[in-house]
Structure formats: C-alpha cells, structure tokens
Design brief:
Elements: E1 3-8, E2 12-15, H1 20-31, E3 36-39, H2 50-64, E4 69-75, H3 82-90, E5 94-99, H4 119-128, E6 132-134, H5 148-163, E7 169-171, H6 177-185, E8 190-194, H7 203-207, H8 224-234, E9 241-243, H9 252-255, H10 270-280, H11 287-299, E10 307-312, E11 322-325, E12 328-331, E13 341-343
Parallel strand pairs: 2-3, 3-4, 4-5, 5-6, 6-7, 7-8, 8-9
Antiparallel strand pairs: 1-10, 10-13, 11-12
Helix pairs in contact: 1-2, 3-4
The chain binds (4S)-2,6-dioxohexahydropyrimidine-4-carboxylic acid and zinc ion.
Zinc ion is lined by residues 14, 16, 40, 246, 248.
Length: 345
C-alpha cells in the first residue's frame, strides 16, 4: 500500500533564481512545488534599491505567473539608504535585507566590509521589524574555510545582536553544530534556514574518490557530526529552524572547470529528498513544520491554505539529471541514494 503525506504547500525561505535565460529555465522548478520563496539579491549587479527589487520581482512573475510569490530582498551595501529600505518594506516590495560579508560567496563583492557603516540601516530595520538575513561566514583569509561560520557567530553576529537586540535575524544555510547551538541559545527573534543538501552531504562527499563540483557550495559542507546536528535541528520540531534550499543554479560549464562556482541546484527534487531524510530520522510528522509552518511563523506570514500531497512509491522516483536552460544545462543535485517520495499531481 502506498503511503502519503498531505501538508500545506511549502515555501522556500532562501532561493537563487538568477535572471534572463537562467531565470526562465529554472524558476518553474521552484514554482511547481513551492508557494513562496525569499529571493536572493546577488545578481550582477546586485539588487540594492527598492526600485530594482520591484523590477526584478516583475521579471520573475513574468516567468512563473502569479501562482508563485517571490518575496524580494535587498542586498545590503555600505551605501544602502535606510529610508529606501523602510519605504520598500512599507510598500510591500521587499520582505528582508541580505547581508553578505564582502567576498564571502558568489557575487558578493559589493557586500559589507565595515559593519559599523551599516549601523543606521540595521537600527531602522529593527525599528520597522524588517528581518536581516545573514550569509554567516567571515572572509578573513587567515580563517580556515571550515571554521568561517563558527567565527562569524563570534565576530559578527553576536556583536550585531548585542547592539541591536530587537533586530530579527535569520542565520542562512547553517552548516555547523555551533550554529545550531547558538540559535537554540537565543530568543526567538533569531531563526535559521537549513538547506536540503546540507542535510544530506558532508565534506567527504565533495572530496573522497575525486572532486565533485556539484557538491561544492558555500558555506561548504562540514564534518558528518555537523550534518547530524543539522538533521537533528530540522527534525526536532523547533520552530526556529526552517527550510531555505539555497538552490543555486550555475550552468555545468561554470561548475565543471578549474575554478568552479559554489552552489547546489536542488529545486527539482528537494521535497523528495526532504521526505526521505525526515523518514530516515523517524520524523515525517515534523516535515510540515520545517517546510511549511516555521518559516511563515518567523516571517509573520500566513501558512499557505493550498495543500500538497507527497506519495511514497515502491519504485524510485524518476527526475531529470539536468535542467536544460538557455544559459546552458544545470545539473540537478544527486543525493546519492534513490528517492521514493514524490509530489503528487
Ligand atoms: O553555494 C552558494 N551559492 N552559496 C552562496 O552563498 C551563493 C550561492 C550562489 O549564488 O551561487
Ligand atoms: Zn544563497
């Protein structure tokens, strides 16, 4: 007998949709299963003003149609105008602001170097209840890449929280037990997204038996004990942890090269993978909270009324290896095991 699970339609609280031919090719992969998504602003050039966010939102809607709601973000720079942020939020154009330490990841050159220079923006955001979404890695070349998240908590996040305790913050795509413990230690105005791929891979998957460019992302996957801490957090029912896939498409040519881009593309099979992970953890009943309830709770938005059903089959689900786009083929994340859960319909 096939097993099934019905839940409110999920949202993706951290998504890269890009622009142009890539947007056209990959946005339907998210719109098929998700109702809403927080859209990352790291285009080239980045989305820094309310007017740019509104124009980008319209380009997304032109591809997805109105059945999908892009929740826009601004890319915080040292020149960001607090009044523009507040106005864009008041007018319903943006939902949040994204902080990239300069140089931390793909297209982050315009990010923040001196955190004191964005104090006025952070104060205004705290006052108006606008969440700050942090790419939680320091960029100090002296810090080992596997330690950059833990050091970010001490050097950047904790000082921001001390100076602006009422600012609502999401620590994005957490990868360590340190981040899990930090979030658990804080009041509920600090949340964290967890990606699909960080629930599945550890750093061995990237490096053992040959280098696997499609498993390379930032923050880079850590040791197995960290992956286990993430699974524990995601399946615990703690409302501070919610799904942000960080699905981040790059054309294969940009991944399979001497200096490959960071990003795993999981939009296509995320819900199948999550059902598998939660089932393995004996926590299928917690998937609804993680994928459909905790995020809206943090963002103070209603849970979607529409519902989806996941069905478990006896034979593995077939999904495409690659999505063909006008910007080149994009490899779909391979979890390394067969998937049995699929979204019905
Ligand atoms: O792996 C990643 N890819 N991490 C990020 O923070 C950015 C993203 C991208 O834009 O490709
Ligand atoms: Zn991202």
């Amino acid at each position: 007998m096939s097993q099934s699970l019905t839940l409110p339609r999920p949202d993706d609280w951290h998504l890269h949709l890009r622009d142009g031919a890539m947007l056209e090719g990959i946005a339907p992969e998210s719109a098929r299963h998700f109702a809403r998504a927080i859209i990352m602003p790291n285009l080239v050039p980045p989305v820094v003003t309310g007017a740019e966010a509104a124009a980008y939102r319209d380009r997304i809607l032109a591809v997805t149609g109105t059945g999908f709601t892009p929740l826009m973000t601004l890319y915080l720079t040292e020149a960001t105008d607090p009044a523009d942020v507040v106005a864009a939020h008041r007018d319903g154009i943006i939902t949040a602001v994204k902080l990239y330490p300069a140089g931390a990841t793909t297209n982050s050159a315009s990010g923040v170097v001196d955190f004191d220079k964005v104090r006025d923006v952070l104060e205004a955001m705290a006052e108006h209840g606008i969440p700050l979404l942090c790419h939680g890695e320091v960029t100090d070349p002296a810090i080992d890449i596997f330690d950059r998240e833990a050091v970010f908590i001490d050097r950047v996040l904790e000082p921001i929280r001390r100076k602006t305790p009422y600012l609502r913050i999401v620590m994005e795509h957490i990868t360590t037990s340190d981040a899990v413990a930090y979030v658990q230690s804080q009041p509920e105005n600090l949340g964290a997204t967890i990606t699909t791929h960080h629930l599945v891979i550890n750093r061995n998957h990237i490096l053992v038996g040959g280098i696997r460019p499609h498993y390379y992302c930032l923050p880079v996957a850590k040791r197995e004990r960290h992956r286990q801490a993430l699974v524990q957090a995601a399946t615990s029912g703690d409302a501070r942890f919610f799904l942000g896939t960080d699905s981040a498409p790059h054309a294969d040519a940009a991944k399979e090269t001497a200096c490959g881009c960071a990003g795993c593309f999981t939009a296509t099979n995320t819900l199948s993978i999550l059902a598998h992970v939660f089932e393995q953890a004996g926590a299928l009943d917690k998937l609804e909270g993680f994928a459909a309830r905790n995020g809206p709770g943090f963002y103070r938005l209603p849970v979607n009324e529409d519902r989806i059903t996941l069905v478990r089959s006896d034979s593995p689900v077939v999904y495409p290896d690659k999505i063909e786009t006008g910007a080149g083929p994009v490899t779909v994340f391979d979890p390394g095991f067969p998937l049995y859960w699929r979204v019905a319909g």
